[in-house]
């Protein structure tokens, strides 16, 4: 049974359930949404990510979550906290935040609304000393939200990932400490 982690004005952020993979595959796994995230995934890849997220939540008390729109009851995005797990990153194991929003809900402020709740969770119950977010310079919408959240660009954490196309390299990172979040809020 999914657990509600946070509620915002328009969203419920809840844990992943075993039955969510097909819905994510259908609603969130589009070329536009996945353009800077390695492309559209196969259903079995989403199922594997869900299994990993559920294990992370059981083990560490945090994971990625689904954004459920209160007005419609529909899945409109994915957000949360995980550990940096790309072996090419210089900061493997650091708390990483991330998000994606369904294309028909873009430019409505849902990602910012969700991520403010995720950051409260990260620096509150989870107790993260700092978090990072990863993107590419080509993904302006992503790094602009990172800046809006008070995150700072960390060129010292950039790395190349041959699994991504040249336009999405290098992977760039932004960071935020608990103290900075408290002052920025």
Q: Assign a percent range to the helix content.
A: 25-40%
Secondary-structure class: alpha+beta
Q: What is the top-level CATH class?
A: Alpha Beta
Task: Report the end-to-end length measured between terminal Cα atoms.
Answer: 32 Å
Please list the strands of the largest sheet in the order they lie side by side: 1-2-3-4-5
Net shape: globular
Q: Count of helical segments?
A: 5
Written as H for each helix and E for each strand, in order along the chain, the element string is: EEHHEEEHEHEEH
Rg from alpha-carbon coordinates: 15 Å
Instruction: Please describe the biggest sheet, giving its number of strands, its sense, and whether it closes into a barrel.
Output: 5 strands, antiparallel
Give me some keywords for this one:
Aminopeptidase; 8 strands; globular; 185 residues; three-stranded antiparallel sheet
Protein architecture, described:
This protein has 185 residues and is of the alpha+beta class. The protein contains 5 helices and 8 strands, in the order ββααβββαβαββα. It has helices spanning 21-27, 43-60, 110-123, 140-148, 178-184; strands at 4-7, 11-15, 64-69, 75-83, 95-101, 130-136, 152-153, 171-177. Helix 1 (21-27) crosses helix 2 (43-60). The longest helix is centred in the N-terminal third of the chain and has 18 residues, at 43-60. The protein is globular, with a radius of gyration of 15 Å. The mean pLDDT is 90.
Sequence-ordered SSE layout with sheet pairings:
Layout: E1 4-7, E2 11-15, H1 21-27, H2 43-60, E3 64-69, E4 75-83, E5 95-101, H3 110-123, E6 130-136, H4 140-148, E7 152-153, E8 171-177, H5 178-184
Antiparallel strand pairs: 1-2, 2-3, 3-4, 4-5, 6-8, 7-8
Helix pairs in contact: 1-2
